[in-house]
Please model this.
Amino acid sequence: MKLKRAIVTGGAGFIGSHMVDLLIKKNFHVTVIDNFIGGNKKNIKHHIKNKNFKFVKLDICKINNNKYNLFKNVDYVYHFAGISAILPSIEKPSKYMNVNIQGTVKVLEASRKAKVKKFVYAGSASCYGLNNSEIDEKTKISTEHPYALSKYLGENAVLHWGKVYNIPVNVIRIFNAYGTRVRTNEDYGSVFGVFFNQKIKNKPLTVVGDGKQERDFVYVTDVANAFYLASITKKNCNIYNVGTGSPQKIITLAKLIGGKINFVPIRRGETKKSKANVRKIKRELKWKPQVSFKEGIKKMMNEIYK
Model:
């Protein structure tokens, strides 16, 4: 029986590496394209000796005619590669526009030439801006920083290629993904990255304001499953929110992680509540989150102290 073939760009990264795990488990041949700027070798080292796994160290912005053979006979492309975090995007906007938009176009063009069966793009719920109400896929777009803009314009390119070139595409707008392998070596970025970095270093957890802000945290393996379902469906040129619809308070997260807490002044532009409406993906793709918040944090704690 012929194996299905997939490419995961950014496959050594946080979400991308879990996508690789899922596909290998489902008996796919998987090629990872990553330049290790945001990814880490340790996230994929357990697959290196697998005959159904291939790693290519490559910057997506350097994908050209000479690299199109990597996409030959590929069924599905899962596009996670890009640069994230809000503050650096404000400092270096052109870099974000280049990688997250032009890099996406490079992957789209390779996928178009290869006539892939489905291209699934990792979008970001940051495109909704500072919205405190329940957010569905038709909620008004409000990009508040270059990172959000770059991800949204990348998403637009994907849908445009789907429309003009008839590439089957779908977009997943990810809310607050968390889980094992989340990056913990930065001072900005996801609250999980910051908290676990502080936890590892035995520092107090810095909670902004009163910690009653709510975020829609969704576990990383649930995110990967959403991408898989978005690839095998016949539905095309669709946008799907991926969250849980059950936001959690930041102070609850801090208490579950444990340790001393330092409260710091609230930051300008801080969203009070993030809540995803996930009825569309539940209805159309039969997806639903499997990992509870407490269970997810326990998995992360086990990884730190194993």
